[in-house]
Amino acid sequence: MNSLALILQSNQRYVSYIIHKYRGKDFYAYIQMKRIEFIVASLNKDSALLDYKLSHLAEMSGFSNPSKFSIAFKNEMGIPPSAFVHLLKNDQSSTIR
Question: How far apart are CA 66 and CA 82, in angstroms?
């Protein structure tokens, strides 16, 4: 948050206010959402990632803890990351047939 405030030549409190006003989330919830969006887009783009362990996907998206990643993923997407990966794999196998 401090780095973002410096880049925007503002203070942390104002940056936090703007994010909350326009995105409806606090700074950390917003960052968490963007991390999940990143990994979802990556999984949709690169099918090789579907075979990676969830701990690696968590690390790729900036989470230091796989369980925090799973909780955040489920909060954003409505299903756990393992179920999401499973659905993508099934979608790919049905398009191949």
Answer: 11
